[in-house]
Amino acid sequence: MATIIGEVSYVDGYLRYGHYELEIPEEQVESFKSMKEIERAMWIRNAGEFVLDDYEVNGIGEILS
Question: pTM of the full predicted structure?
Fold first, then answer.
């Protein structure tokens, strides 16, 4: 099966909600919990994956050649 990509000139809409997800080994959980809040936030931001929970697309531009 082939994947064909048609890039568009723009996307218009709103990003509403999102969150980070980070999986860590069980042996690091206690270390994570003992960190200061700012350290935990930095770790999540640097190593986690950002996931959009809610968004709205209002318009999509023309497919570019």
Answer: 0.66
DSSP state at residue 62:
P
Longest CA–CA separation in the chain, Å = 53
Angle at 42 between CA 36 and CA 48, to 5 degrees: 125
In order of 28, 43, 53, the CA distances from 19 in angstroms are: 21, 14, 7
In tens, the pLDDT along 9-52 reads 999 999 999 999 999 999 999 999 999 999 999 999 999 999 99
Can you give the length of the chain in residues?
65
